[in-house]
Amino acid sequence: MAYTAHIDTFARDNLPPRKYWPEFSFDLPEVKYPARMNCAAELLDKSLENGWGQNIVIRTPDGQCTYEQLLAQTNRIANVLVRNMGLKPGNRVLLRGPNNPVMAACWMAVMKAGGIVVATMPLLRAKELTEIVVKAEITHALCDKRLQQELVNALPDCPTLKKIAYWYDDASDSLDELCKKASGEFRTVDTSAEDVALIAFTSGTTGKPKGTMHFHRDVVAMCDLFPRSTLKPEPTDIFCGTPPLAFTFGLGGMLCFPMRFGASTVLMERATPESLMETIQKFKSTVCFTAPTFFRQMAQVAKAHPTPSLKKCVSAGEALPDATRQMFKQATGIEIIDGLGSTEMIHIFISHTPERTRRGASGYAIPGYKATVLDDNGKPCAPGVVGHLAVKGPTGCRYLADDRQRTYVRNGWNVTGDAYKMDADGYFYYQARTDDMIISAGYNIAGPEVEGALLKHEAVAECGVVGIADEERTQIVKAVVVLKPGYTPNDQMVKGLQDFVKNSIAPYKYPRAIEFATSLPRTETGKLQRFKLK
Ligand code: 3UK
Known about the structure:
- 30% of the residues lie in helices and 24% in strands.
- By secondary structure, it is of the alpha/beta class.
- The protein has three domains: 1-9 and 33-196, ANL, N-terminal domain (Rossmann fold); 225-434, ANL, N-terminal domain (Rossmann fold); 441-533, ANL, C-terminal domain (GMP Synthetase, Chain A, domain 3).
- The strands form six sheets. Strands 2-1-10-9-11-12-13-14-15 form a nine-stranded mixed sheet, sandwiched between helices.
- β19 (413-422) and β20 form a beta hairpin.
- α2 (39-49) packs across α4, α3 crosses α4 (101-112) and α8 crosses α10.
- The termini are far apart.
- The chain binds 5'-O-[(S)-[(2-aminobenzoyl)oxy](hydroxy)phosphoryl]adenosine.
- Residues 202-203, 248-249, 316-320, 338-343, 347-348, 362, 416-418, 430, 433, 525 line the site of 5'-O-[(S)-[(2-aminobenzoyl)oxy](hydroxy)phosphoryl]adenosine (3UK).
- Residues 202-203, 248-249, 316-320, 338-343, 347-348, 362, 416-418, 430, 433, 525 line the site of 5'-O-[(S)-[(2-aminobenzoyl)oxy](hydroxy)phosphoryl]adenosine.
């Protein structure tokens, strides 16, 4: 059997059977890794070897730290995990905190100690935490004191979770206190490149959460794929943005990518579009990661918050409407880099450089990945024909003990659940989630296309389009619209919006029902919760 550093083999024992794994390919020289690798050694210890020890790695409104300081603090936490909390390689560790330096150091510490990180979104409630703890048989937790309550509420139903330490806490057994007595030296566990490093639960809007398992190799690969080929960071870059570290979009963009390139990251615990712009101003950030809805709102306030330091912006999590792309470009001069990624693939696999943008497209398969569009029988679709997006490359889907493995992985392809079409040049155009396609009077209608049309109307701040049941037409297209300040929701507005859509896309797609709202329901990762609109 292959080498593993894990004494607790739970993760390996619960990988899907090999025959249900996607096909992996490591053709690119930058992803040919040795058999033994620990991603924290790659991202942190190596940064000192690279001469970045005195570079600032994390910035916050309350202070900053260098790579060398982060390494010492990470080592202290790793020592606490092993010596005070009895962590054995392979144990699962729940991490719970907003984006802050301790959360980042805890993440790296679990890696160094050979544990498996299960990070959770700050807003999760006891019920959701319980599902995750039970599914991943989590034994340890490191938790920001301010998020203690829901974890405590979950504990009666979490028999495996026995060791917990809180940070930003002054109790004598808090992580802060234990760290004061711990050594800043730690011998990193010599993990296999194929030992599981993290179990990321999908931020899926429906159904039971799925745990996706990623190896140490996958964490390093995500840094050597999208950033290396497409984003191209430099040590002088200052990253900033909103996605939580518990979401792999944020884990990459807000921590691992800057660290792979000797750059720094500004961690924000909470952000509004205005506070994000102010933070970019204050820290002279050069790179921004956030969701499309944030970019749209940032564009609206850009005049009052000029951000001349900003050079590159990455949007993911949801489709980037062309209206938002154009609005942001007008306001800031920046061509947003759209990136399609998923928790299953760990990070972005379809994207584009700012120079190779094509309107309406998410981009092309980035170097290292192959992508195609398949019909219902698994055969490739001709250019221009809508089907199921399928992708393969150096990373891929491995669910923790879950039958849905065979839905996501088909014939070696990762099938993301997105309806896409490809043009003759290999650019991919998002349509909708496959199960969100609206079928009305025999027509297939993609909600995001109607949203894209509505967003071009001057009165529309935000909108969501769904299909609602209708006797005559099976479904009808319904739009929920948030108006910009100064516009009145009335029948005249409804008519105006409907005519506007009819004039810009095929008239049968227009929203027969329009409802006005003051905000739209979204997940912590910025995704519209369509099921709530229905
Ligand atoms: C949708 C997009 C159109 C799409 C993610 C970047 O979102 C991430 O992971 P999730 O598992 O969701 C995956 C699904 O979200 N989606 C994401 N990005 C785009 N749709 N254009 C986009 N640019 O339906 C996809 O299947 O929450 C994104 C990096 C890491 C991630 N985990």
